[in-house]
Amino acid sequence: AGHTGAVWSVAWSPDGSLIASGGDYYDPTIKIWQVQSGALLRTLTGLVDWVWAVAWSPDGTQIAGSGSEYDRTIKIWEVESGALIQRLIGHTDAVFSVAWSPDGRQIASGSYDRKIKIWDPRTGNEIRTLGPISGEVLSVVWSPNGSRIAGGYRDNSVKIWNATTGGLVRILTGHTSPTGSVAWSPNSLWIASGSWDSTVKLWDADSGALMRTLPRQLGLVYSVAWSPDGSYLAFGCSDGTIRIWGGSE
Asked: How far apart are CA 162 and CA 153, in angstroms?
């Protein structure tokens, strides 16, 4: 406990010892917590409204956080000192998702301006823009090898991009409502997408073929996440449940 409003996003540090959490319009801070004791270690400030997304750098030394319609930026803090060290400016609407590349050299951000931008977190320079294309971007995720980026879009699709060239690789269609969350499996073979149509779909990451649609949930699916070994998939729903699929199924 410590936030004074809703908590919009949480993320574990790479070593599992810390958790970062992002607040709402009335508390636009990122707080860093020690997992074992629950102690609040540090509060990061600099965003002016809702903290839609928080993401740790792969080495655990930095945190990126994105703002809503009034802020429209991605900001980067140094974890040890709490200092705000970089501002990524270029989106023209709310930034709903941020993700570090596996090697930590780039950041991808997805925005309501229908663009995914790739940034150099060291210089703050924009490297390239993916889009604009139909649908606002609700979620972004890198492939484990860093060569591609998948985005979940408000036009019900998942779009896969070449992270190096910026070319659109393919569009995955099948959902009937916005795709709020996408997750690449650790073995690079699958992409999971969670939608407001109350379904989770599993796609072949290379061919784009729809491999499976999990049974319809009781509520809208807002978030999906793979277990580290890729054998289970968890998803959070608007009916107040977290469901886990996998194992022997």
From this structure: 17
What's the CA gap between 157 and 137, in Å, rounded? 10
Strand bridging mode 210-213 / 179-184: unpaired
Residue where the block lists tokens 């809702």:
50
Cα gap 210→194, rounded to integer Å: 13
Q: Residues 67-85: pLDDT tens digits?
A: 777 889 999 999 999 999 9
Residue 81's contacts (CB-CB under 8 Å, 6 or more residues apart) are none
* Sign of torsion over alpha carbons 53, 179, 157, 178: negative
- pLDDT bin (cut points 50, 70, 90) of residue 197 is very high
DSSP symbols for 201-213? EEEETTT--EEEE
**219, HSE (Cβ side, Cα atoms, 13 Å):** 12
DSSP readout, 52-119? EEEEE-TTSSEEEEEE-TTT-EEEEEETTT--EEEEEE--SS-EEEEEE-TTSS-EEEEETTS-EEEE
**CA 99 and chain centroid, separation:** 6
pTM over cut 0.90: yes
